[in-house]
Amino acid sequence: MFGSGKTLSSFKVGDKVTVRAPSDRSFSHDGSHGTVVTIDTKRVHVKMDKAAFEHNDGEVANFLPGDLEPGHVGTPRNSDRMNEAFTAMKLAPAPTSWPWR
Question: CA 62 to CA 100: how far, in whole Å?
Fold first, then answer.
């Protein structure tokens, strides 16, 4: 997410943020909700309030400013995302005809 326009000055301690596909590390925090705890010379340190995986709750991780979105956006837990996807599939209307007929 280089060139996203977000800089270190875009954030301040106490801001609520959502992690979006970290550009320089694994995607295990993608979608996590957190709070800015400190700001370094190049990175923003975020305490995970509701991480993508429960075992990461409370962890402090650092991110480039372009990897963060202001506010808590979307569903953070991967398990909740999967449940929403299965519910949407169950509620979708069944096809009335098949393409091979």
Answer: 52
